[in-house]
Write the structure tokens for this entry.
Amino acid sequence: MFLEALGSALLGLALGWAAAHRLPHRLPARRTVLAAGAVGTLFGAYLAHAALGPGHPLATLVGAVAVGAVLLSLLLRPAARLRRSAARA
């Protein structure tokens, strides 16, 4: 369980770094993105481990990355504002 948690936290930091590096204009501060990635993957690892049980480390890490990606997607801001005429339609 400890190695799953450590691995998921490292994967979350890598996921957060990749998101902050690729989309800096659409995300909040880098520190927030890195923390959200790590916390999201830790929660995902806990959730996957509780659902699958022990003995499934790879599936647990896949579940952790999935939950971390979902949490990071919630931080995204829209790319551009709608034009006034498009907002009325």
In short: The chain has four helices and no strands. The chain has a mean pLDDT of 90.
